[in-house]
Amino acid sequence: MSEKINLVCLPFAGGNKYSYRPLFTENSAVFNVITLEYPGRGTRIFEELTSDIDALVNDLFNQLKPILSKGNYAIYGHSLGGLLAYLLAVKIRENSYELPKHIFITGASGPSATSRQTKRFHLYPHKEFIDEVIILGGMPDEILQDNAMLEFLEPILRNDFKVSETYIHKAAEPLNIPFTVITGTDEDLKAEEVLLWQNESIPAVDFIQLEGDHFFIMQHRAFIINAIAEKLTKQLETF
């Protein structure tokens, strides 16, 4: 393989373009990590947040255009990022660009899962909302114990939860893209709703389950990185 593939990463709820640094701690010989940024956080902190999922997908699509023109890319997203990865791929197909070589999803049910709409964490009072964030995991203790930091992050988290919890699925033709979907054994996800990812892909989806809660990815860094590299290497060797 003569050229590295670009792995375009979409952050989880409350995340920014730096959120995957603890996961991708070392350079890969197979892929470059490029993380997109949602408005209202990180390098775009002075922009307004948006809970309009169509506007968010359009924003991501515009960020991705320089990479789309070159092709040779894959997309990865965890949780909210997984849902957005799928919607972004649909948008790419609608605009007749080259599709990603692979879509990697972690910690997310299929986009047609109905339980997503039954959760209304974004409307919870402060204490109950923070309790749910703690249950999900992934939030360092130093942040949970810092009231000023929590006050700063709470509107971002609420916004991102709203994006997911108010999403209504619009059925689309399955994508002719290989999917790999990895979930944790202790996540609050229904197995039958994870399997719904197969409805969105023509090739058979590779479903994998690892020990851990919603942020199992941080306990299985080596596995995740190796799985992505192996899948992409095998795929690119067939071209």
Could you describe the 3D structure shown?
With 239 residues, this protein is an alpha/beta fold. The chain has a single domain, classed as Rossmann fold (3-Layer(aba) Sandwich), CATH 3.40.50. It contains 8 helices and 6 strands. Strands 2-1-3-4-5-6 form a 6-stranded parallel β-sheet. Helix 2 links the parallel strand 3 and strand 4. Helix 1 crosses helix 2. It is globular. It starts with a strand and ends with a helix.
CATH superfamily annotation:
Alpha/Beta hydrolase fold, catalytic domain
CATH architecture: 3-Layer(aba) Sandwich
Biggest sheet overview: 6 strands, parallel
Structural class: alpha/beta
Order of adjacent strands in the largest pleated sheet: 2-1-3-4-5-6
Order of helices and strands: EEHEHEHHHHEHEH
Counted beta strands: 6
Radius of gyration, whole Å = 17 Å
Low-pLDDT stretches are none
What share of residues is helical? 25-40%
- Overall structural domain count: 1
* Total helical elements: 8
GO biological process, one term: lipid biosynthetic process
Organism: Mucilaginibacter rubeus
Family: Belongs to the thioesterase family.
Protein name: Thioesterase
